[in-house]
Amino acid sequence: MSKPSHHIFVCGSFRPTGAAGVCHKKESVSILQHLTLEVQDRGLDHIMVSSTGCMNVCDSGPVMVVYPENTWYRQATVATAEAILDSLEEGKDLPPPTLFA
User: Fold this and answer.
1) Which DSSP symbol is given to 88?
2) Angle at CA 38, nearest 5°, toward 35 and 42?
3) Which pLDDT score is estimated for 29?
4) In the 3-class helix/strand/coil scheme, how is 22-80 assigned residue by residue?
5) Of 43, 45, 36, nearest in space to 10 by CA
6) Are 64 and 73 in contact (CB under 8 A)?
7) What is the pLDDT of residue 99?
8) CB contact burial 18-49 (16+ within 10 A = b; e otherwise)
9) Which is higher by pLDDT, 14 or 67?
10) What is the number of alpha carbons within 13 Å of residue 86 lying toward its C-beta?
11) Angle of CA points 64, 7, 55, to nearest 5°
12) Strand, helix or coil at 84?
């Protein structure tokens, strides 16, 4: 595997206590699954998708972050994920951040 040009993190809200937080309860897993399948289906080998532990911005969940831009998205949806992938696939700027903008 070559070094990815982009890494998309989806908050899985896993905590050391084992409790699942807000992002998990708001279906972040479905966003993660969608991204993973879409990256494969589109042949976007230069994009890596990962789940994270709690990102500690629970009021904004589900949360996604795209690196290397360090662009944060709050209340993310499958539509948010699609817009990000479309931008990366087309070589365009990412959609505007919705967290820490």
Assistant:
1) H
2) 140
3) 93
4) HHHHCCHHHHHHHHHHHHHHHCCCCEEEEEEECCCCHHHCCCEEEECCCEEECCCCHHH
5) 36
6) yes
7) 79
8) eeebbbbebebbebbbbbbebbeeeebeebbb
9) 67
10) 7
11) 35
12) helix
CATH number for the domain whose boundaries are 6-90: 3.40.30.10
In the chain, what are the domain boundaries? 6-90
CA dist., res. 28 & res. 97, Å (int): 18
Which tops the pLDDT comparison, 2 or 71?
A: 71
Q: Is 8 helix (H, G, I), strand (E, B) or coil?
A: strand
Instruction: Record the tokens describing residue 4, joined without a space.
Output: 């990815």
pLDDT tens, 48-99?
999 999 998 988 999 999 999 999 999 999 999 999 999 999 999 999 998 7
Contacts of 41 (CB under 8 A, 6+ apart): none
User: Tokens at residue 83, please?
Assistant: 């817009």
Return the structure tokens found at 36.
């993973």
